[in-house]
Amino acid sequence: MLPSVSLLDSFQFSQFTTLLVIYLVAITAEAMSGALAAGRRNMDIFGVSVIAFVTALGGGTIRDMVLGHYPIGWTQHPEYVYLVISAGLLTTVVARYLHRIKRVFLLLDAMGLIAFSLIGCNVALELGYPPVVVVMSGMLTGISGGILRDVLCNQVPVVFRRELYASVSLAVCLLFLGLRTMEVENNLSTLVCFAAGLALRLLALHYHWRLPVFSYQQRWE
Amino acid sequence: MLPSVSLLDSFQFSQFTTLLVIYLVAITAEAMSGALAAGRRNMDIFGVSVIAFVTALGGGTIRDMVLGHYPIGWTQHPEYVYLVISAGLLTTVVARYLHRIKRVFLLLDAMGLIAFSLIGCNVALELGYPPVVVVMSGMLTGISGGILRDVLCNQVPVVFRRELYASVSLAVCLLFLGLRTMEVENNLSTLVCFAAGLALRLLALHYHWRLPVFSYQQRWE
Amino acid sequence: MLPSVSLLDSFQFSQFTTLLVIYLVAITAEAMSGALAAGRRNMDIFGVSVIAFVTALGGGTIRDMVLGHYPIGWTQHPEYVYLVISAGLLTTVVARYLHRIKRVFLLLDAMGLIAFSLIGCNVALELGYPPVVVVMSGMLTGISGGILRDVLCNQVPVVFRRELYASVSLAVCLLFLGLRTMEVENNLSTLVCFAAGLALRLLALHYHWRLPVFSYQQRWE
Fold first, then answer.
1. CA distance B12 to B9
2. Which family does it belong to (chains A, B, C) (predicted)?
3. Most buried by CB count within 10 Å: which residue of A195, B132, C149, C193?
4. Burial of C179: CB neighbours in 10 Å, binned 0-12, 13-18, 19+
5. Residues B120/B140, Cβ–Cβ less than 8 Å
6. Chains adjacent to B (≥3 CB pairs closer than 8 angstroms)
């Protein structure tokens, strides 16, 4: 039933198998985080599947819709859809053990954030958008899956409050764009972005770095 | 002020007047369910109109945006817009009597869910998308209007928790795709999908069937 | 780094510098209202930037996505992105003084609502959509930024409950369409819409006019 399109052939980073593998790991990790959020709201297994799907592939979907980039990625890759829904459902079985591998999970999540951001930048670059849109496309891909997850679970999105989560995406996008402007070779540039992004995210987690918070409680009436 | 386009001519299922009638009944029923949800949040009549519109036509809008299917359906059918807003406003007048026809309402709602799902499948098929996208397009059309309604009313979407609501959509889409693969004649296939979908939904309502719920309350900190 | 496209050249109302200035004032005021809402939820400065951006430019983005109008406005105007994010961040500094200029703020906000509505109508007209879509495009541009802001801040959208906010947008769109049908000259028509819209909004604020509220608390079980 699958279309005869090789996953590798059509992937926009076909030259790096590494980035594809990281991407697959990333959408799996995001799908699992979505499933856990659905479980906190006592959803049924259908709700779990939807939230897993939206968390993993929603960011890319919104990016493609904003940039007018059709057909949208996952519609050409049914295997991604199966992967994220399977990951979501599997999570309902193994959930009780997941907190034991919390560190692994956070690492995968950070790698996913960086992979998503780089892929988002690349899509906008290939479509010829100006630099500010390239950066926003990277961030949109990186963080809007998590925003959708939180909106559907009826809570204020954590990315607006968590340790430098979105800031890592921004830093990676800016670094990527800077390296590209300096005509650094593509593989090297990806590697540097990954190293810097991971370091920043892990340091932020370890030292609980946060951005300044804006608290405004004044009533106007 | 209406464009001179006949409702029947341009409807994608022009061969079945029946499905069109069911579709019109469906968007009316969905608009009314939206209006009731808005009333539970004490919205003004403008809010009622918006929620009625979004519940009835939002699913098709999201589907068309995801599939890149422009122009979006209702922009070519102003009469749909008038119909759903009128239904929403009328609901504010007759709301007190609606619970007396609860069974009729649930039946119309189930027919709407099935009609939406079949229409969604067909749109994706005509655009040449792979089978998994066809199924997701059907489900997106069937359930995302209700999801939007609940997000705008600031509550966790009920379709993630209600008796087999989304599952009926999934079953109908899979059945439709299966019958099509076996080259069953189109009218017969639609009829079978309706019968099976209605039976499943009504049984689920009667016996309070539910999908297994995933409940996860562990804190990681 | 900015593309060499003059802000004035490509603006769809190039003939009215006035409307462009009002548009810039409007997105600034909307960005500030977004930042204040983010502050009420104790977001970090990244969250403030996102909510400011979404409140100011989200309405136009949704309109363009619904109408299939690509590329989306702000992707061709990086300066708008810088403007709204700067306005959002600046708000965190000056927030404590803003309630003193409440009247100015409400005036700017009303002007923004009208400017957004007129721009939305014009975009749909240029794409050849039927009248009901023109009106909905205007309203979508005028009010959906505020709806997105409230959904992301996890509250029931205030536009569904506030003093004639959305109704002003509707009135302006209908008036604009009516004047156009009567072939009133464009500049005059814009002026009349502004005067009427501002008057209606300010009267509604002063006298606390509200639409009738629909309150429905009946449980069906």
1. 8
2. Belongs to the UPF0126 family.
3. C149
4. middle
5. yes
6. A, C
- Residue A113 tokens, joined: 């954030």
Top residue of B72, B123, B132, B155 to mutate, by most chain A CBs within 10 Å, is B132
ipTM for the complex shown:
0.82
Report A:125-144 residues touching C (Cβ under 8 A): 129-133, 136
In 3D space, the residue among A178, A169, A161, A221 whose CA is nearest the CA of residue A200 turns out to be A169
Q: With a cut of 50, list the residues of chain B below it in pLDDT.
A: 1-15
Interchain proximity C154–A154, CB inside 8 Å:
yes
Tell me the count of B-C CB pairs closer than 8 A.
94
Q: Do B132 and A81 touch (CB under 8 A)?
A: yes
Q: pLDDT tens digits for chain A (221 residues)?
A: 333 333 434 444 444 577 788 889 889 989 998 999 999 888 999 889 999 999 999 999 999 999 999 999 899 999 999 999 999 999 999 988 887 777 887 888 888 889 999 999 999 999 999 999 999 999 999 999 989 999 998 888 888 877 688 889 999 999 999 999 999 888 888 889 999 999 999 998 888 888 888 888 877 65
Neighbours of chain A (3+ CB pairs under 8 A): B, C
Q: Residue B73 — left, alpha, or beta (φ > 0 → left; ψ -120 to 50 → alpha)?
A: alpha
Give the ranges where chain C is alpha helix by DSSP (H). Answer: 7-10, 17-40, 45-67, 78-98, 102-126, 131-152, 165-181, 186-207
Q: Which residues contact C103 (CB under 8 A, 6 or more apart)?
A: none
Closest C-chain CA to B105: C220
pLDDT of C106 reads 82
Residue ranges of the alpha helices (H) in chain B?
A: 7-10, 17-40, 45-67, 78-98, 102-126, 131-152, 165-181, 186-207
CA pair distance C81, A143, nearest whole angstrom: 18
With an 8 Å Cβ cutoff, are A160 and C47 in contact? yes
